[in-house]
What we know:
By secondary structure, the chain is α/β, with parallel strands linked by helices.
Amino acid sequence: MxxxxxxxxxxxxxxxxxxxxxxxxxxxxxxxVRIARAGFDLAVFARRIAQTDxxxxxxxxxxxxxxxxAARSDLVGVCVGNDADVVExxxxxxxxxxxxxxxxxHSTVHPETCRRIGASAARSxxxxxxxxxxxxxxxxxxxxxxxxxxxxxxxxxxARPVIDAFSALVVHAGGIGTGQILxxxxxxxxxxxxxxxxxxxxxxxxxxxxVEQAATALAASTGxxxxxxxxxxxxxxxxxxxxxxxxRRGAExxxxxxxxxxxxxxxxxxxxxxxxxxxxxxGLAIASDAPD
Length: 292
């Protein structure tokens, strides 16, 4: 067992054999399946029992509460929507986690959210790592996500076999919260790519090029980007399809992440490069269909 120097007192991190997972959504579900198929004793919880079907078929045990899941797990992975959701799950899990266990936060949230949870967890002898992921459902299913991790080295090392189950690249950025900072930079860059893509589509149309043909060529060339690849994969429609209520799917999450990036930069006294910032604001407007 490895010693972890924590915020409150040294934490002894246990080897991970039993895993719990909360958040069986678009990306979380295939992550959980990968963990089960890697041979871990996996338990899952979801408020809607139908969300557990795929994980159950992969060998996971379905439990009836967060408390039950936490009590049986060496590591609990959390992949839910936003900061409030993460805090709610952490508050429900922490009283039941054993000293030496690990809480892994895979959601993209403010780094201070992770640090506050980490401070609370340390008082109970529980280690926290923030481990947001990038790549989407398809890459989660093939185990090729990029995972950006923040936390003390012993906890990250103990969590690594679980993270490796769904990741092709794992980057340990530093202490608690740094994984989130790196992920926010990534999402900020992606938002700027959406802005560049929108202008490229407009330029190609103005030059009387076939937009779909041009985007396909760009996606496979040096002028491409992840945003362009997604645009082509989606049939060159809007990169953010609509919900049934008319909202753009994913736009609200991108807006959250850009707001978090703004807050992190402001707290650090960092000014964004003007061109990058302009394109990110443009991309955010495109994502939500809001006027620039």
